Amino acid sequence: MKTTFSASALAIVIAAIQPGLAQAQDATIPPVPEATAAAAQDKTDSAPGPETDSAKAASGKGDLDGLLDMSLEEILAQEVTSVAKKSRRVGDSAAAVTVITQDDIRRSAARNVPDLLRMVPGMEVAEVQSSATSVSARGFTSRFAANLLVMIDGAAIYSTSISGMFWDQALIPLQDIERIEVIRGPGGTLWGSNSINGIVNIITKQSVDTQGLRLNASAGTFDYRTEASYGSQLTDTLSFRVYGDFRATNGLDSASGAVPNNSWKGGLGGVRFDVAPSENDSVVVLGEYSRGSFQERFQAVNLGPLGASYVTQIQQNRFASTHVLARWKHQVSTDFDFTLQAYFNNLFRTEFGATIDRDLFDLSGEGRWKIDHVNEINFGLSGRISRDRIGSTYSLSDPSGSNTDRWLTGYLQDEISIVPDKVRLTIGSKFEENNFTGFEIQPSVRLFVRTSPAFAAWASISRAVKTPLLINREMQANVTLIQNVPGFPIPVPVSATFNGTSKAQSEEVVAYEAGFRGNLSRTWTYDVALFYNDYSKLSTGDLVGTAPLFVPGYFLPVGVQLNYVVGNQGSGQSKGMEASLSGTLARWWKAELSYSYLDLTLNAKPGSYVLSGDGASPHHQVRLSSVMNLTDKFSTDASIHYVGEAQNHKRAAYTDLDIRATYRFNSQIEVSVVGSNLLKDRRLEYYQDTLPLELVYVPRSVFAEARVRF
Q1: How much is the pLDDT for 195?
Q2: What strand order describes the sheet that includes 155-156?
């Protein structure tokens, strides 16, 4: 009898079961272990930051200038909107926030958004498969970043069924990104559930800033990609951009060094209109469609009376996404403005024969009202509907065949200026009602103090929640592996069944944060954040029964059957810090050093284990980057990144080196040669031992890139 794995069983179950199974060895019998979106900010919301592409071309400035031309005051004055839902200087934000700018993107070796996030202190990024990337903040590393809320221009691209992201479907052209705002720590007060460890808000460029023809093309030993867009000003108040993106990769290396059958390719096309009917109004309308395909190798378990073995299988999979968004912002006065947004996304995906088909509808309104010189109110109300249809297979089954979740949320926040420009107290809460956990409240208090132009400090206390995954609430998952079991002389099949329950509750965290930032001198700046998180009601697998595993026609058991029900018996604590130091070594040379430390401990009652384990996150990460303009036309950029060991020493520590050399012919054409992971021929970023998938390694790679602007 051959038992094959379906999954999005694997795709969905991986988030729920993989990290914690090793922790359950204390049990009597060991368990087994979008397309881009959204509403664009209008000019009053966008960070001034570096000049736009069109402005640079007109002025003769280019990519070689941006970062090194920014003074420390300008770096701290970069604006961020995700912390308070309004423009605010990074230096005045009461949160651990990092902004990845246009120039950071241009001068990096990154191929996609997860690669860009590697440069943020405290972020954990690892390639799991060619079609799967793990991105998380402050622990709970998993394929789907279940504790990390990802947005595009403020619109959450979140899947209810997996509580996270399909990163390979985030086909966002890098040349169209204005900036990426990354907040480490809870964001539930303004952004709602499932942002308990952080927020990633990807903000795209307005079409008025992307006029003319823009092409990016790269090809190398590992992959190739092409980005193209054309923008035009139709009238004084109307501009548009049409754009496309295509990417393909050969696949990650296997343990033997060969490239297995795990290639990936995908493309996206879209159009965006920006309208300014009056000085007080801005409207954005956009639509996108993306699709792709990928291969994945997995191992089915062949059960028989003479023993069990793995049989390697290769599955062809595909995905698609449709995205439509409309947004209107109106400024009533300098003290009052509001925004209305409507959003629809359809996500389709197959993996190993199973399917996920989700429709997401979101309608929201939010506003800002400066009552007086002391109080400024932020408020909002939104309704959200997600309809998930998941095909049932051996590894995953849904009795209903489909599920519809509904949310009604509101938030209210008061920013109190105690001492103008020096002391600020922010108090607020998010209120949420949904059809599966009921009423949720997520309050926070933040204090910001500036003692001088060169020093500021902040502190906060927040409560946030992560609502249970769909699989935790009503679905059944089955996983079979070959493992060592007490009482058996050889490894035997262990089949685990996980049953969801309507009693599943939200995971909770109370987070304590503090930080300080400022200038060490006229040329150096620093930023330090400290945190302590207390988690409760963490999702667990609760063992409810064991039984012999039989093969039809054979009277002796061939293995062990374990039965689990999903519960909330887990708790945990995490503590850590993130620090960065940046400045200029010379007029033509800028450097940045960052360090992050994490200590995460999880606990569960006897007979249970926490589904999101604590062993996959490294304790230490260090990154050193260098940006040099050697001449007016030639620049070099380099970064060296150390990532400590993880997964109970199974994933060894590694250090990678990326180098980019760029030559600019003029303001319109430049070419680059990029080397990635140069210190070793390959590295293992994620140790996969809880699902029957082969280990894959990120190879050393070199590619050439050309950028053209007309």
Answers
A1: 80
A2: 96-101, 177-184, 198-204, 148-152, 155-156
By DSSP bridging, strand 492-499 and strand 620-629 are unpaired
Cα separation of 223 and 217, whole Å? 11
Please tell me whether residue 256 adopts helix, strand or coil conformation.
Answer: coil
DSSP 23: G
pLDDT recorded at residue 388: 87
d(CA 469, CA 463): 19
CA distance 148 to 466: 10
Q: Which DSSP letter does residue 692 get? A: S
| Burial class of residue 445 in the structure, from the number of CB atoms within 10 Å of its CB (0-12 exposed, 13-18 middle, 19+ buried) | middle
End-to-end CA distance of the chain: 62
**SS3 state at 31:** coil
C-beta neighbour count of 524 within 10 angstroms: 14
529 contacts 516 by C-beta, under 8 angstroms: no
Q: Which long-range contacts (CB under 8 A, 24 or more apart) does 334-342 make?
A: 334/370, 335/369, 335/370, 335/371, 336/367, 336/368, 336/369, 336/370, 337/367, 337/368, 338/365, 338/366, 338/367, 338/368, 339/39, 339/365, 339/366, 339/367, 340/364, 340/365, 341/39, 341/154, 341/155, 341/365
- What's the CA gap between 206 and 402, in Å, rounded? 37
Q: Give yes or no for a contact between 96 and 529, defined as CB atoms under 8 angstroms apart.
A: yes
**CA atoms within a 13 Å half-sphere pointing along the CA-CB vector of 6:** 17
Give the chain's length: 710
Q: Quick one: 99 exposed, middle or buried, by C-beta within 10 A (0-12, 13-18, 19+)?
A: buried
Calculated CA dihedral for residues 580, 581, 586, 590, nearest 10 degrees: 10
- Strands (E) in 45-111, as ranges, are 79-80, 88-89, 96-101
The pLDDT score that the predictor gives to residue 15 is: 35
d(CA 50, CA 154): 21
Helices (DSSP H) in 341-465: which residue ranges?
none
Token pair recorded at residue 561:
């059957």
Cα–Cα separations (whole angstroms), residue 176 to 52, 172, 241, 242, 244: 11, 8, 10, 11, 10
Please list the alpha-helical segments (H only) found in 414-544: 470-474
Which residues does the chain have with pLDDT short of 50? 1-63, 70-76
In angstroms, the Cα distances linking 689 to 11, 253, 354 are: 15, 17, 22
Q: For 518-565, what is the HEC assignment?
A: EECCCCEEEEEEEEEEEEEEEEEEEEEEEEEECCCCCCCCCEEEEEEE
Cα separation of 41 and 38, whole Å?
9
Question: Which of 477-480's residues contact partners 24+ apart within 8 Å by CB, and which partners?
Answer: 477/9, 477/12, 477/13, 477/16, 477/17, 477/395, 477/396, 478/9, 478/394, 478/395, 478/396, 479/5, 479/9, 479/13, 479/17, 479/32, 479/395, 479/691, 480/3, 480/5, 480/32, 480/301, 480/303
Q: Residue 568: what pLDDT?
A: 93
- DSSP code, position 436: T
**Cα–Cα distance for residue pair 689/425, rounded to 1 Å:** 47
Domains and CATH numbers, the chain: 9-709 (2.40.170.20)
Residue 267: count other Cβ atoms within 10 Å of its Cβ: 16
Rounded to whole angstroms, the Cα distance separating 85 from 337 reads 12
Nearest to 386 by CA among 409, 358, 355, 408: 358
Backbone torsions φ then ψ of 69, nearest 5 degrees: -80, -10
Query: Is there a contact between 122 and 577 (Cβ–Cβ < 8 Å)?
Result: no
DSSP, res 41 = P
Tokens 């996500």, residue located:
347
